[in-house]
Write a structure and sequence with these properties.
With 156 residues, this protein is an all-beta fold. It has one helix and eleven strands; from the N terminus they run E-H-E-E-E-E-E-E-E-E-E-E.
């Protein structure tokens, strides 16, 4: 079972970076830069997937994923270990490093994600051993009882 994680710099660093504004810094902040003459493109991807059987990677291009509508989960894995998937709630824009395996799953009926990448993208596809899907459920762990005073009111 894979737990959906919140995005933060430390737990996502092995896969890429979070695109976020630092209020204490300059008003214009370059988040990611790649020098060269490759060109780039912006695309919109409608995500309907509720399960996946493959992940893909791009050896020649970083790739941004920027949520625009709906609720979406980003599935990623290091290039050397494509079966060791991690899931992140994509609630802020990120940039995935070159050669990181990835795919998207919609938690809402559908989601819309903006993607920026090189104009020409080399893609590799990895077939997962089994279907991967997100299952939402309620924990069976008992909840802590709420403290109450003698007359049944909360003590605060």
């Amino acid at each position: 079972m894979v737990t959906i994680k919140s995005l933060n710099k430390s737990n996502f660093a092995r896969y890429g970076s979070i695109i976020e504004f630092t209020p204490e810094a300059d008003n214009f902040q370059v988040q990611i830069q790649e020098n060269g003459n490759t060109g780039w493109r912006i695309a919109l991807l409608k995500v309907n997937n509720k399960s996946i059987n493959t992940v893909s990677c791009h050896p020649n291009s970083m790739e941004t994923f920027e949520p625009l509508e709906g609720t979406v989960v980003l599935i990623v894995a290091k290039h050397e270990k494509p079966e060791e998937l991690e899931a992140f709630l994509l609630d802020k824009p990120v940039c995935v490093k070159k050669s990181i395996w990835h795919n998207l799953l919609a938690l809402s009926s559908s989601a819309l994600v903006k993607i920026t990448e090189n104009a020409w993208v080399e893609s590799e596809i990895y077939e997962l051993g089994s279907e991967f899907k997100i299952v939402l459920g309620i924990s069976n762990r008992p909840q802590k009882a709420e403290r109450r005073n003698e007359i049944g009111q909360r003590p605060w």
